[in-house]
Write a structure and sequence with these properties.
Keywords: Membrane, Transmembrane, Transmembrane helix. The model has no long low-confidence stretch (mean pLDDT 94). The chain has four helices and no strands. The chain is 79% helix and 0% strand. The longest helix has 29 residues. The protein is globular.
């Protein structure tokens, strides 16, 4: 279970990594840094955090396997929801209802917060006998 979600999380993070570096290069090339907060969250939440979770699941075995799936889904939905919501909130490129955009942004952030809280719990639920020896 952990190995499957590890690869999924790392692939998801890689997509965010390329999007984040593309946005950064666009900002640099155009000298327009208005997307700075979105760029930062794409790289910190979508790339760094999700990648770290993927590596954690590569190294550790978790006692309660279902938590790995729940955490991974929450993390991916939260990272995508927060960053897309932030982009829509700041730019509203589709002229969507402001309330809808704000709720989308808040729901994404809330899912991400839940993923981080669940991850804290999961770090205390590692199966000590089955973990890889990293020495």
């Amino acid at each position: 279970m952990e190995q499957t979600w590890s690869l999924r999380l790392i692939r998801f993070a890689a997509i965010f990594g390329i999007i984040g570096t593309f946005v950064g290069s666009q900002m640099s090339g155009s000298m327009d840094y208005s997307l700075r907060p979105i760029h930062a969250h794409i790289l910190l939440v979508g790339w760094l955090s999700v990648f770290a979770w993927g590596i954690f699941y590569k190294v550790y075995k978790i006692k309660y396997k279902k938590l790995v799936s729940i955490h991974s889904i929450l993390g991916m939905l939260g990272a995508a929801g927060l960053t897309v919501g932030m982009w829509m909130y700041n730019l509203n490129p589709f002229n969507l209802n402001e309330t809808f955009v704000m709720v989308f942004f808040i729901v994404g952030g809330t899912l991400l917060l839940l993923a981080f809280l669940l991850f804290v719990l999961i770090t205390f639920l590692v199966d000590k006998q089955e973990n890889m020896d990293c020495d």
